[in-house]
Specification:
It contains 7 helices and 27 strands. By secondary structure, the chain is α+β, with helices and mostly antiparallel strands. The protein has 3 domains: 60 residues, no CATH class; 63 residues, GMP Synthetase, Chain A, domain 3; 200 residues, Beta Barrel (Thrombin, subunit H). The strands form 5 sheets. A 6-stranded antiparallel barrel has the order 21-22-23-26-25-24. The longest helix has 29 residues. The radius of gyration is 24 Å and the shape is globular.
Length: 386
């Protein structure tokens, strides 16, 4: 009898240890998104919030280069869980009714919060403050962005400049500004490949096909604008000529990094397909949106979350880019050869194209950040989906 009790006790302890181990692993997985399945579930969860974001941003007018013209009451929009969060300067009934009218049936997926500074106020300050620092210290700002959730401006400078500013005691207490150490620039400019590997004969480099659509009434493919592309360059796929570049956006203080290549050869045709996904719409994603991306070099789908929009970033020794969208990459990688790759997400039951991969940066904490040109700039330049 005693022997049987000992055997039972051993079995019980082994079972308890197994259950603790299983429970520990399960709880660890629940602490955050860990697997590609988790990312898929996250995209499914937020698909109606993404649709609500599309309805709202679709109601904004745009200036001549594609920047949204925001209402003066709007402080920011981002996604948390299954909700679209809309931050406003006031939460009175008239203000909320204005946005509810725009959102229609999607208002059930929206939550309103209040913040101090409107997006128009922050974007009005950001150029002034960045230019003031550059003029005073005669050194370029590496990046700046509006942090919508935090309702502030973040300016990235070199470590040396950051130390100089601290030693000088320069402060921006009257403004919602945070200075941070800039991050390593790693824009892919050689051996560029992507969803399909295409090559620029004139520049002697490979790059990424992002998506196909229409421009000036004809079929085109979209890729990145950096990497030596100029109007007239010959673009090939697998040694066969596709066409010649007709539009390039990659200029100092320009909005975005992309180019259009007409599909002139009868050997090729454009489609709305990216990998195995059929794209049925386009949208510039809001902060908090989980997005997918793909690059030919890494040859796998990656996932990330949008952390900022309207970002200015120092691309290389002569080019500042404006209007970029930044994501925190949680799964996958971005390497030389991935530039130009597609970003996409779910909106309702459809797959939505979001933009063109520019490149990557690595933070001081070794976190990978991806940057892409949001669709709004392609659209304003004259591009549309097939």
């Amino acid at each position: 009898m005693k022997k049987r009790n000992v055997q039972f006790l051993v079995l019980f302890l082994l079972l308890a240890a197994f259950l603790c181990l299983f429970s520990g692993k399960r709880m660890k997985a629940e602490d955050g998104i860990k697997t590609e399945k988790d990312y898929e579930n996250q995209m499914q969860l937020q698909r109606f919030a993404v649709a609500a974001s599309g309805v709202l941003t679709g109601s904004f007018e745009q200036d001549e280069v594609g920047n949204y013209i925001y209402p003066d009451t709007l402080c920011g929009i981002w996604i948390e869980g299954a909700k679209l969060i809309i931050a406003l300067t006031a939460d009175d009934q008239n203000t909320i009714a204005y946005y509810d009218t725009i959102l229609g049936d999607y208002k059930q997926y929206v939550e309103y919060v209040t913040r101090t500074y409107s997006k128009n106020q922050l974007y009005g300050l950001i150029d002034y403050i960045a230019e003031s620092i550059e003029q005073q210290y005669n050194e370029p700002i590496q990046s700046y962005e509006v942090k919508e959730k935090e309702n502030r401006i973040e300016i990235g400078v070199s470590e040396a400049l950051l130390n100089r500013i601290k030693n000088d005691g320069l402060k921006f207490d009257e403004y919602p500004v945070t200075l941070v150490k800039g991050i390593t620039t790693e824009t892919a400019t050689t051996a560029l490949k992507g969803g399909m590997a295409i090559s620029n004969v004139n520049a002697g480099c490979a790059m990424t096909l992002s998506v196909c659509g229409k421009y000036n009434g004809g079929s085109v493919l979209v890729t990145c604008g950096h990497g030596g592309q100029t109007v007239g360059d010959v673009i090939k796929y697998s040694g066969a000529q596709i066409g010649q570049t007709t539009y390039v956006r990659y200029t100092n203080y320009g909005y975005g990094d992309f180019s259009f290549v007409p599909i002139m050869s009868g050997n090729f045709s454009g489609s709305n397909q990216i990998l195995s996904y059929y794209i049925s719409g386009c949208q510039s994603p809001s902060v908090g949106t989980t997005v997918k991306f793909y690059g030919k070099t890494t040859a796998s789908v990656g996932y990330g979350t949008v952390v900022s929009t309207g970002v200015q970033v120092y691309a290389d020794s002569s080019v500042y880019l404006k209007g970029m969208t930044k994501i925190h990459v949680y799964s996958g990688n971005i390497q030389n050869g991935d530039s130009g790759g597609p970003f996409f997400c779910l909106s309702g039951s459809t797959v939505i194209y979001c933009g063109v991969l520019h490149g990557r940066r690595v933070t001081e904490e070794s976190e990978l950040m991806g940057y892409f040109t949001p669709y709004q700039y392609l659209s304003t330049a004259g591009f549309s989906l097939n």
